[in-house]
Amino acid sequence: MNPRVVADGLFIGQIAWLPGDGRGSAIAKTAVGGPCLLTAQGLAGDTQADRSAHGGVGKALHQYPAEHYARLAAAFPTARHLAPGGLGENLSTRGLTEYDICIGDVYRLGAARIQVSQPRTPCWKIDQRTGCEGVAAFVAEHGMAGWYYRVLEAGEVAVGDWLEHLERPAQTVTLAEFWRVVRDPRPPIEALLRTAYASGLDEQWAGKLSQRAEWLRNNGQAGTA
């Protein structure tokens, strides 16, 4: 894993109607030209239409690997907006993917200190944004949705700042491992609980995974390691 990568892009958005849909979204974001304050609620000037799915303390900042766009473009050559900032992310970098990032990882970005809290769960708005059916399902299937941070220490951030890794919990999983367990129809109980108890994981995800482990145990449906 790269101990630090550069912030290639910062993006904020306002709620607007999606083409061909009667609902609003802030997935269409624009690049931030200068320093921007990052607080517990996210980047100054950024908004979310559905606060149950995006934004808030547990989803203050969304990072998306720029490397994923080439793969998406190859799979969906007619899709629109397949470039950094195109899928609603706030932070774009190269050199970190879901195989490198662990739940609970703490980073310094500019003057802010942030912690990985959960992966993004892709939704229908990705298909609407790209104008291509199946992009969201592809992103979900391949675990290419990026991830969210909670803000431990507010501060100004800017394009060109280093995203520097500071610490990693002893009990954690990579985001790639997270999605492998979550997508498994019969995951081993041990793997499911290790994921649920990953230090720093958002409490809603932790509760959901713990409940699933209990159901699998009670119904004899768990897989084997």
End-to-end separation in angstroms reads 26 Å
Which CATH top level class of the largest domain fits? Mainly Beta
User: In angstroms, what is the radius of gyration?
Assistant: 17 Å
Taking pLDDT < 50 over at least 5 consecutive residues as the criterion, the unreliable ranges are none
* Overall number of domains: 2
Query: What strand line-up does the widest sheet have?
Result: 1-14-10-11-12-8-9-2-5
Helix and strand succession?
Answer: EEEEEEEEHEEEHHEEEHHH
Please report the number of helical segments. 6
CATH superfamily of the largest domain: PK beta-barrel domain-like
| Spatial shape | globular
Largest pleated sheet:
9 strands, mixed
| Mean of pLDDT | 91
> Helical amount among residues, as a percent range?
10-25%
Provide the structure class: alpha+beta
- How many E-type strands? 14
CATH architecture of the largest domain: Beta Barrel
Explain what this protein looks like in three dimensions:
It is built from 6 helices and 14 strands. With 225 residues, the chain is an alpha+beta fold. The protein folds into 2 domains: 4-167, M1 Pyruvate Kinase, Domain 3; 184-218, no CATH class. The protein is globular, with a radius of gyration of 17 Å.
